[in-house]
């Protein structure tokens, strides 16, 4: 059993953003984070889940993901994303990330648990610290190419 805790942050929406992830399985513990110069909170929430799942080395793992993002949790647990696939993600944001999510999601047995954010949940609070720090790292932040390309075209994903 693997537990993944995730959080995303953006200062401004859009603005500089980051994600934070904690993976825990038995005595194993790992933290991940990354930031982008211009993105959205929802993109970082979803990317945190993707990066957490991507870091699992063997397929078929039993995974519980704890997230404070209703956007991510409800989209999967209420099966909305599977309907979006059938409709080609018409008029849906973050298509690129949802496609990446679905590719890694199907490799494992995944369930989501929503937790209230900023509610003194230790792992959620730590993920928030990681996400915010990643969004404020020194030096130029990487580009969220898909987001910026769509923003420049005026047709956000």
Provide structural commentary.
The chain has 157 residues and is of the alpha/beta class. It has one domain (2-153): Nucleotidyltransferase, domain 5 (2-Layer Sandwich), CATH 3.30.420. It is 40% helix and 28% strand. It is built from six helices and five strands, in the order βββαβαααβαα. It has helices spanning 41-54, 70-77, 80-86, 95-105, 122-135, 145-153; strands spanning 2-10, 15-25, 28-39, 62-67, 109-114. A five-stranded mixed beta sheet has the order 3-2-1-4-5. Strand 1 (2-10) and strand 2 form a beta hairpin. Helix 1 (41-54) runs parallel beside helix 4. It is globular, with a radius of gyration of 15 Å. The N and C termini lie far apart (33 Å). The relative contact order is 0.24.
In total, how many domains does the architecture comprise? 1
Structural class based on helices, strands and sheet pairing: alpha/beta
Give the strand order, joined by hyphens, for the main sheet: 3-2-1-4-5
Query: Based on CA inertia axes, which overall geometry fits?
Result: globular
End-to-end separation: 33 Å
Number of helices: 6
What's the order of the H and E elements? EEEHEHHHEHH
- Helix-residue proportion: 40-55%
Query: What's the CATH architecture?
Result: 2-Layer Sandwich
Low-confidence stretches: none
């Amino acid at each position: 059993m693997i537990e993944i805790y995730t959080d995303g942050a953006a200062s401004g929406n859009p603005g500089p953003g980051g994600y934070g992830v904690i993976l825990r399985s038995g005595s194993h513990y790992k933290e991940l984070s990354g930031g982008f110069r211009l993105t959205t909170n929802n993109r970082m929430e979803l990317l945190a889940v993707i990066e957490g799942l991507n870091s699992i080395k063997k397929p078929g793992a039993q995974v519980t993901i704890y997230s404070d993002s209703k956007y991510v949790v409800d989209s999967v647990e209420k099966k909305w994303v599977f309907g979006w696939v059938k409709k080609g993600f018409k008029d849906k944001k973050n298509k690129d990330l949802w496609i990446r999510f679905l590719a890694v999601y199907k490799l494992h047995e995944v369930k989501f648990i929503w937790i209230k954010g900023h509610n003194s949940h230790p792992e959620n609070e730590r993920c928030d610290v990681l996400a915010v720090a990643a969004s404020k790292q020194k030096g130029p932040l990487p580009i969220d190419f898909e987001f910026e390309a769509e923003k420049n075209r005026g047709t956000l994903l």
